[in-house]
Amino acid sequence: MTGARARALVVNIGAPVGFAVLVVAGWALVKAVTDIPDTSLPAPGQVADALWEQRDLLWDNAWVTIVEILVGFAAAIVLGIGLAMVIHANRAVERAVYPWLVVSQMVPVVAVAPIFVIWTGFDLRPKVMVIALVSFFPVAVNTIDGLKAADPELLNLLRTLGATRRQRVRIAQLPAALPSVFSGVKIAAALSVIGAVFAEWVGASEGLGHLILVLNNQVATAEMFATIVVLAGIGIALYGAVLLLERLLLPWYHGGRQGLRD
To answer: What CATH number was assigned to the domain covering residues 50-261?
Structure first.
């Protein structure tokens, strides 16, 4: 690793960690100089204690939520990319389907989640459906935009050489779309965690979303904050995994962006 890359890595890790330290320090200062009750805002130390003392409970419920997120996230990627390919392949399909793609995001998830529960029961399926519904939209839209971003001159050259539509998609359009696809997948990674919590609020007997409801009824605020910290950690880990995969698969893209910044 070169010195420049090492410095960039330190900055990329140190900057968000330093900001988090400042936020926690400000949080602790607010608790120290105000009379806010612990039931409204626990101190950072109380949340840390709850994370340790309730680690078994948090882990058991976190594993349930992680499985839901991974399955729903994978379904969102498949649905989003597949729908984008179909829409891009036919202009008539795009005119007919794209507006309804937008409408699907205007319906509140909390309104349709109970319908999924009625259809499928209280097992994994309604959670996956909710997560996929929340998460697939940015994948689909970014993939559609990416497919349209292919170099027109390259497409014309491929047509001149007699390339089929499938060959043009494989050679020119998919590579051009990959940065946009990953942008949508990164957004979906964050949304999938939100979708899992919504799904568990509607109908679940375990999971971190369900645990938040139980702790809220018990006014166990420190434990609620600890659960939120775990949820945030899951979201950060999933986003980081997608970012790492993007860097591995698209080194040319990140190398070009780094060169522009330098």
So the answer is: 1.10.3720.10
